[in-house]
User: What shape does this take?
Amino acid sequence: MVLAGFYNDPEFANVDSSENESILPFKGTILRTKSGKISSPVEEPCVSCTTFNILAPIYKRLDQQNQSVRESDFRAFWLARNERIVDWLLYESSSIICLQEFWVGNEELVHMFEERLSAAGYKTFKLARTNNRGDGLLTAIHQDYFKVLNYRELLFNDCGDRVAQLLHVKSVVPFSINQNNCVEQEILIVNTHLLFPHDSSLSIARLHQVYQILLYLETYQQENKLTQMPVILCGDWNGSKRGHVYKFLRSQGFVSSYDIAHECSDSEADADKWISHRNHRGNICGVDFIWLRNPNKSRKPLKISWAEAAFGIIKIEQSLDIYIAGHMWCLAGFLITLCIITSQLCDIASLVDKSAK
Assistant: This one.
């Protein structure tokens, strides 16, 4: 779970843009009271965001000796835990809430979340994973802060049945960009939960999911003739700061809100400074991110950045003599290598799609 807040106060936080930057047309910082709630040092409006993998009851194991026993079998257990989760979400009252592993297959739980969040002023959007996996995403936008202009769903239709939500919102309270001007800031918000890296053969599949998200963002803005605007990417990315996904997003101008708040760099020394949850293997890890990108952030063209990232994975696998015999991504890898050698202008993503069918 990660929670971040951003304040409209250009004098309060002077973030070095060479390493970190804040979202929207103002500087950002995070403060907490002793109770843990975010607080603002000024009277300006605060925009806060929470991303939280709430662990679907159908996946929560209760007995390590009998892996088939799940929390979903015991209503009292899953209901009490999820009511506490909602209690905490309402206590924090973030402007934006992005949940993963939301149990969309249980009507009682869905109704409880939607009813309580709606009563607190939130507009909710849920999206199930494909192929009836049982869980999915829920994004809640507090209507005191943002008006939802558009909502889109992105289905990856891949081996992990993963999905993503895109919300185009506009601030209700204008943000001051200088002493004389205020704007109703528009923002693009994405909520997702990437494929878990069970082995190295899934590295390109995970990278391709991120590529699809970024390509969808570009396409959405072009089709709707929108000017470039701030982007917030939230979710469980199932990968640390050492991974290819992290490096790919950094190459596209995104920065981690945690890195901004704690002045962390991309160095190895800062790779293990925080954790966000315990995964199904029992490992504690920092994999939940709130990524931020301002529209003026310079970056490489998306397809070139994607090609370089994919080629980097292939080179690492070759150096380690990792062979994925019989796997569809093995064929995709050779196609990608060939395309990069012959021309950097090849559409790598389309080749991966075709080879995987």
Observations:
- Residues 301-357 form one domain.
- The CA atoms of residues 314 and 334 lie 8 Å apart.
- Helices lie at 75-92, 107-119, 203-223, 244-251, 257-262, 302-319, 328-342, 348-356.
